[in-house]
Amino acid sequence: MPPETTAAPAQDVIHNIGYRNYAGPRLGRAYARRSLFSQSLRGAYGLGRSAKSKVLPMILFGVMVLPAAIIVAVSVATKMNKLPLEYTRYAILLQAVIGLYIASQAPQSVSRDLRFKTVPLYFSRPIERVDYVAAKFAAMASALFILTATPLLLLYVGALLAKLDFADQTKGFAQGLVSVILLSLLFAGIGLVVAALTPRRGFGVAAVIAVLTISYGAVSTIQGIALAQDNTAAVSWIGLFSPITLVDGVQTAFLSATSAFPGGHGPSAGTGVVYLLVLLALVVGSYGLLMRRYRKVGL
Amino acid sequence: MSASSGLYHPTVARLTYRALLGRRRAAILFALPALLLIISAVIRVMTGADDETATTVLGGFALATMVPLIGVVAGTGAIGPEIDDGSVVYLLAKPIKRPTIVFTKLLVAIGVTVAFSAIPTLVAGFILNGNSQQIAVAYAVAAAVASIAYSAVFLLLGTVTRHAVVAGLVYALVWETLFGSLIPGARTLSVQQWSLALAQKIGAEGAISSDVGLPLALVLLIGVTVAATWYAGRKLRTLTLAGEE
After folding, report:
1. Please, are residues B24 and A198 in contact by the beta-carbon 8 Å criterion?
2. Contact flag A203-B245 (C-beta cutoff 8 Å)
3. Phi-psi bin for B56: left (phi > 0), alpha (psi -120 to 50), beta?
4. How far apart are alpha carbons A116 and A200 in whole angstroms?
5. Residue B66 touches chain A, beta carbons under 8 Å
6. Residue ranges of domains in chain B
7. Please, which pLDDT band fits residue B4 given cuts at 50, 70 and 90?
8. Do B56 and A221 touch (CB under 8 A)?
9. What pTM value is reported for the model?
10. Can you tell me where the transmembrane regions are (chain A) (predicted)?
11. Could you tell me which chain A residue has the CA closest to the CA of B179?
């Protein structure tokens, strides 16, 4: 940006109607990026938007937290000596809710900017393409992290209140957190890439959910058949092809989770390295695709 | 009979058809059946012809996942985007009866859903086990019947709410898949189970099972389809256009 020269208005105008130039502080690129991040994060829960658009994310958040509250209540009341499920298993069990959340919120984050052609307006501010993509990506991943980590936190607090073993619970909670961080990054990347393809919100929703459920449906069907054939090696490899089984595989191999694969035949540590690499490649790849997508957007 | 008095209007049909199969929307409609066929071929090569495998793939993947998704895309896509961007007022301003509009759009949505779900299911069934025990035909018929009911229900959703796609997906995924597998009673109220009842009748004894009796299933299928279509026509008469939130 050019330096501000505000002292004297230019003399070479035909008719000076006396408008003043802006002389206040310029908050700059970092501020704009932070604002875009916080707006997108708030928007993902409908904050700062109409009451109607708060309904769905809040309901999904409630549905996500409710089972954790019930589990805590039951385990406190019946004085269990451990929680009835692992921290890492929680997100896998409630994957439908997470899928619906990312499918409904990713398009509202990016599709509307495309549809109303506000993207060029963003880029008339002192932000670059990388700021926009990074802010949207970080906001969506944070929103997903809030969605998936809150019930884990509830479980952890409940477990401590029930006087379960501190070291045990802390370890499980930490492993659960690592797993939902990976899940949030992966789902945010996939959701945003698919949603950014179309300016139509409804179509974006269908496309995101199709990518998530169809891949999961196909993978679990083939896994079921492979298990029936006693081909357990195939069961542990096929999980590479859908997002949620990818997360499941990584946490089975490295975060001592029990696999939700048919028959519990999750990947071993060796296969798990491939899972982890594919997961990281997908996160980086979706960031790259988003950068590519916004190279010529709205022009 | 003049064009405006019947229940079918060719121009509306052509516009709907082009809205459904135009541009990228068609990609999702082609990708799903293609994936089903690829999976079927892979499984056939991997395991050979096996009736149980065929039922797993056709029941678990085709009928449970693919048909509802295509139904959502076609059913809500037939009317949702027009209401969303407000261009439906130009259609409603024409001297065409609202039920005619709904019925025409429903026919197109059914046609698209059947073409992209029932036919691939039939082909996949033949790939998987060569129609042994009539499994391929049974599931294809079930997919076709389910397509009709899904199209009608999701078309109605498209006229009722702006979040028709999400609502449709919640029904298809959460209600039919999640609740259906946990609460037995939920299965009675599931399009998937109604169509399975028909498949059970067509397929060989014991090949396919449904939780709903055939007479009840047929009554519910027809009832839901007719009621949804009627109500969608009614809803279109009192449509108010809201701005983007």
Report:
1. yes
2. no
3. alpha
4. 10
5. yes
6. 10-237
7. very low
8. yes
9. 0.84
10. 55-78, 90-107, 137-161, 173-197, 203-222, 234-257, 269-290
11. A96
